[in-house]
Amino acid sequence: MNRTPRVLAATGLLAYIALPWYTIENPSLTSYPFGDEGTALGLAIMGTWWLLPLALPLLLCLCIALRNRPDESCAEWLAVLGFVGFAYLLAQGFAVGLHGWNAEWLNALFGAPGPKQQGMGFGALVVGVALLFLGCRGLAGMGWCRGDTFIVSSIGAVGMLLALFVFYPVATILTSAFTDDKGQMAIAPFVEKITDSSIWGLKCLGNGVACGVAWNTIVLAVLTAFASTTLGLAFALIALRTKFRFKAPLRVMTVLPIITPPFVIGLALILMFGRSGAVSGILFRTFGVVPTRWIYGLTGIFIAQVLAFAPIAFLVLVGVVQGLSPALEEAAQTLRAKRLTIFRTVTWPLLRPGLASAFLLCLIESMADFGNPLVLGGNFEVLSTKIFFAVVGAATDQSRAAALSIVLLLLTLIGFAVQQLWLGKKSFTTLSGKGDPGLLMPLPTSIRLACYAVAVPWLVFTFAVYAIIFIGSFVKAVGRDYTPTLASYEIAFRVEHTSFGWFFSGSAWPSFFATVEIALLAAPLTAAIGLLTAYLLTRPDFHGRRALDFAAMLSFAIPGTVVGVSYILAFNVPPIEITGGALILVVCFVFRNMPVGMRAGTAALAQIDKSLDEASLTLGARSLTTFARVVLPLLRPALTASLIYAFVRAMTAVSAVIFLVSAQYNMATTYIIGRVDAGEYGVAIAYSAALIVLMLVVILLIESLVGERRLGRRPAMSNVAAAPT
Amino acid sequence: MLPHRSGTAVLIAAFVTILIVSALPVRAGGSLVMYCGVQEEWCRAVSTAFERETGISVAMTRKSAGEVYAQVKAEAANPRGDIWWGGTGDPHQQAANEGLTIEYKPANLNELYDWAQRQWQEARGRTIGIYSGALGFGYNEKLLKARGLPEPKCWADLINPAYKDEIQVADPNSSGTAYNLLATIVQIMGEEKGFAFLKALHKNVNQYTKAGAAPAQAVNLGETTIGITFMHDMIAAAQDNPDIKTVAPCEGTGYEIGSMSLIKGAHNLENAKKFYDWALTPAAQELAAQNKSYQTPSNKNTPLPKLGVDLSKTKLIDYDFAKYGSSEVRNALLKRWTDEVKNQPR
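^ inputs. structure came back:
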């Protein structure tokens, strides 16, 4: 046994003795170590008796570790003490609340109101981490996961984080679907709410009544996913298998929509195709087409969503198209198959998993999208906006919001299930990891022309949308008065030189700095946890792997509004009290965006032969070393992808953060919503344009910092090397 | 392997430091935490003016009234905010009924208009009016003339079939403004006739928007010809676009009371009370008009905004806030409206 348990136990004990146990409201150290800033030991002496038992596992662990006898019974003791201590830490946190006992049965048992306590602080954090890792260390000593401490500790840490920041808040809000106003269990109202005709009504078939909101959501999501996947495939085939001349603009046009703040695309569409839009005006003057409101409703949301999500489908499919081994196609060619036949019988079937993931991703994105339906929805309602207004609308009803969220969650899960059914258990592996000679085959002419026909008009259209956004930020009153001016930028980003030095007096600066800070904090954490989870899901074999996978995807599938409210409900009260600052936003982003890094990581790891890490392990390197020096460098594309995604999402997310922002940490998107509310479209658009430029810079920076994956000299490998994830 | 070990270590150390700093509780920063429910500019002007006056630093967050209500409710076990300033009165009333806010008697209560005092009494001192705004509608004159439509002057004019697809109003299920309209029409015409009117209006409505002020923006952009909103929203839009004309309906109209409440369990209660008293003085209320918000202030001594609506010259109905603000009446009206109006074909 090495010295890790000793260090862990000593650190835990030190924190117990010396670090302030609770969160501190006004750091002053006047009462340290007893009062508000008391340490666990100090408080326990002063009467906070329920903290006293925590000293026991720490002390015992330290004794065991100091005895230093490397046998199994010792490990068993560590495991038991670590986990029991950790469980006690959580139990006391959840039992003793801000105003006394947290549960009725505790009141009944020990008498109301019972003891009180605040949220856990640094002391509790360090003690908790030490106990958890001591327990994991013990399990490893007992031979779990081949006795690999790094793996067991990682599983423990990731599992704990997911339980705390995904399961716990989600469970908090979902239980509210089953409770009535007085907090009593109520099934009947829930059944009534979830089978309501406003959700499932089908009267729309026939007369002009609006459909049930669930059907609207499904129709929109399927249409959007279908169109986005088609466009994404066309882009991917053009980018990789043709000699298209404008590949650089194609690349830009496929990145831009991903980094565009919400509302902006919708606004641009209104400015072009609305009743007083620029294009509508031209059509009216030249052809006498009377402008109508066709952009509001299904059509408008559909166009805006396809603009936004086709690039996501492209990013997924470009990896798959690149990963296709030309060897199979060459074999077909050798057998004298025609090019179109090869495409139909070889290429297309191999594309199926890629098409399925792209379709599923767009489907989920469309169902969770909030900004576009809000701006362009007209009288077409979808679940995400309905949930939002069930929480904040004139008739607030949180349990209805929870019921609607369950419907949305069900639709998402059905999407997952259908994808699994379609793919079945066929093998789609084409990368053997042993080098892949062969030349990429050009597309059959008919397919190539079809791709051009789909993609080129769309590219022109995307370009026009962004031209409107760019122009809109430099004019007086967008949509009405196109006199050039810098006024919008001046309101948002004014910088003055005063006697105190530079003063950022523009109204957008506070939210701008806060957003950048949060995004910069969240991105590396998201990537780290995502890739670590991916490693755990692909390499070691352990029970509960599927549960881990499911938990990680859960937070991705839940609509943002639900996440936002559930985070307030769960984390505004002890034991984990983190609302009102930067931390809650960072945590929210990390666990919402982590699944993408995880997916990218598992895909990349699936391509890397296990023999590489096995070689490293055989040579005596520990898992941590293997992960850091063998696996991680090979994961660079996945790292880049998850860093970029996490950063961009942290800067453009809306629905989850509306409830989590505070005065010091207001986010750019909530500021933009405020401007749109006030009708200051110019400022909103100028701010968005500035954010787009910033995100482009950061993306380039991340790409250059993380760098390319450096693979062996065999030229045939270049095919694998270039595969993005 | 990563290229520069020491560089990476420095980066990681810096990152961890920032993380720890950001994890420190920040609520100590503001000695008054204010949830603001009006336009950003006005919110900012009010919080800086109070800071300048008292030296108390204000941490202000701007949200719509519904969002503030949802947040105050979610945070009830451990409130983060101290004062909830601005936003339409219904959610304030609802919070008062649910005991999320506390009673307080301001020093200058008798300087306020009757409607503000009455609301304070009905809410048992838990919320107080700081401004009010009357409902009305506005139209884009250019579009109206281009389509050869008559100028609407009364509520009754709006159901003229000539206006088919020309009117925009918010959905009362999501917007307090639109609920105010629904309650106003019911109070002016009676429930049966009121719903007959709303059904006829339904045929002319091109879209039920989510947010109450959205129709004013749509009139501004020319996306709709007529929009039903609070008049001050329409007047604010008219500052931007001179084609917009605001109308006070001839039959009389309902109004909202923008309110202020002290949040129960506020961490900085004394400062919040100071703000409460200060916010009712003319000096504080004057800030509205200076920041493009043209509501009628609640203190009689505050000069009326030049561009605003003089409520004493507008025909106002005797709006029953207690009745129409209660959950039962509201839910019943909203259900009836959704079933009989919104879900009917146009």
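Chain B has two domains: 32-132+256-312, 134-254+327-342. Chain B touches chain A through 78 residues (CB under 8 Å).
thumbs up if we can close this ticket
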